[in-house]
């Protein structure tokens, strides 16, 4: 790592969330849930679902319906949501501004890059492909790597382990309060991006820095926490 600013060190590793951070997908996830809820007789509007995107589905589903996401009807709904999202929404999604350029820059600098998400393996491949970074980040976590989803720290801790990183060597880049909370519990700071839809900065108040999107972070990279 490179020492800067009176001995502070730039982080060797960067943990990336993907939904809302590298891919403009949060609204699509919410709408897919709304459709599945309606099919099962739950009148739950988009406005109630959208603020919960960023939590794992194992938390979102019981919070809104009271159903267990791991068994019975709840599990059926979770699987249907995944299939619907993949079929109808994923093909239309676009990267957030500057997503690939930021990842390319950090990779070129030799940073250890790890995807820290609780998406399932097959779903993650599609997300990375649509974000345009599938070929740039080899280390990834999926739902199989953690017992609990965000805002619990399990995914962050698994990502640190996959990257061979200690908490003091890494920074998280995410877009929701749940990313910030999970990373904080794991002992690492978060750079938050507003492009996931959280434009009220109070909601992202636990972040060490805020930027509109990856392009804005890249434009100010040397003055960011990524440079010590």
* Order of helix and strand elements from N to C terminus: EEEHHHHHEHEHEHEEH
Biggest sheet architecture: 6 strands, parallel
Write down the CATH class of the largest domain.
Answer: Alpha Beta
- Average pLDDT value? 94
How many domains in all? 2
Measured by DSSP, the beta-strand proportion falls in 5-15%
Side by side, the strands of the main sheet go 5-4-3-6-7-8
Give start-end ranges of low-pLDDT stretches: 1-7
CATH topology name of the largest domain, in short, is Rossmann fold
DSSP strand tally:
8
Distance between the termini: 10 Å
CATH architectural arrangement of the largest domain = 3-Layer(aba) Sandwich
- Shape category: globular
CATH superfamily of the largest domain: HAD superfamily/HAD-like
Helices and strands in order:
Blueprint lengths: L2 E2 L3 E2 L3 E4 L9 H14 L6 H4 L7 H9 L6 H18 L9 H10 L3 E4 L5 H11 L7 E2 L13 H10 L6 E5 L2 H9 L4 E4 L15 E3 L2 H6 L9
Parallel strand pairs: 3-4, 3-6, 4-5, 6-7, 7-8
Antiparallel strand pairs: 1-2
Helix pairs in contact: 1-4
